Amino acid sequence: MFKQMKSDIRTVFENDPAARGLFEVVFTYSGLHALWAHRVAHALFKRRWYTLARLISQFSRFMTGIEIHPGARIGQRLFIDHGMGVVIGETCEIGDDVVIYQGVTLGGTGKEKGKRHPTIGNNVVIGSGAKVLGSFTIGDNCNIGSNAVVLRPVPQNSTVVGNPGKIVKQNGERVRDRLDHTNLPDPIVDMLRSMQKEIDQLRAELHESKRNQPKGMVTEAAVVSSAKEE
């Protein structure tokens, strides 16, 4: 247990440059307090001491402003920064090395029983105010932008922003939306380019025709022009 607590404290120092001392971290970081309370509540929940587990989680919510259902499964080195308004549902599963900022909701979308909350992979960052709603998976190494609303699975190594959430980067490369105004086709520009291409082709054919014309040959146009002058 103490080994786990040391790991949790170390995680705070690794993720928050504002953390200046052990006393400060242990006594003033609400995210750390909520995590420790959850570990106790979750242990009781697994032993079917549901009411006591809920009482502990409710007390933690009152003290920290962070609501974590005792049934939620949380991995190693979770860091909840600021924390106020964070909600983590009963069937939510969180992997290792996850960072969650204030106002995040990991919730469900209906009243069905069973798995109804998201599964968060390893090394995921969820920005302030983001909502991840439903029973699906957020892959490893993902970044969920602030105030994003995510309602469907996200593949690993992705960045999601907006409402509804859209993948804007995957595997280090930008993902372009076909309906992005900066990428929409311009029919006038396309028509002008087509006309320019045809003009260039006609010029090339005319130039080739003149080059292949025998020297001394009088063209019909030249004869007509000469007749008019006379």
Q: Please report the total strand number as a whole number.
A: 16
Give the percentage of residues in beta strands.
15-25%
Strand order of the largest sheet: 3-6-9-12-14-15-16
The top level CATH class name of the largest domain: Mainly Beta
> How many domains, as an integer?
2
Name the structural class: alpha/beta
Question: The CATH topology of the largest domain, please?
Answer: UDP N-Acetylglucosamine Acyltransferase, domain 1
Q: What's the architecture of the largest domain in CATH terms?
A: 3 Solenoid
Topology order in helix (H) and strand (E) letters: HHHHEEEEEEEEEEEEEEEEHH
What would you note in describing this structure?
It is a single chain. This protein is an alpha/beta fold and 230 residues long. The protein has two domains: 2-174, UDP N-Acetylglucosamine Acyltransferase, domain 1; 185-229. Helix content is 39%, strand content 17%. The protein contains six helices and 16 strands. It has helices at residues 2-15, 22-28, 30-46, 50-64, 187-212, 220-229; strands at residues 67-68, 73-74, 79-80, 87-88, 93-94, 99-100, 105-107, 119-120, 125-126, 131-133, 137-138, 143-144, 149-150, 158-161, 166-170, 173-174. It has a seven-stranded mixed β-sheet with strand order 3-6-9-12-14-15-16. A five-stranded parallel β-sheet has the order 1-4-7-10-13. Strand 14 (158-161) and strand 15 form a beta hairpin. Helix 3 (30-46) runs antiparallel to helix 4 (50-64). The radius of gyration is 33 Å and the shape is elongated. 27% of the residues are buried. The model has no long low-confidence stretch (mean pLDDT 88).
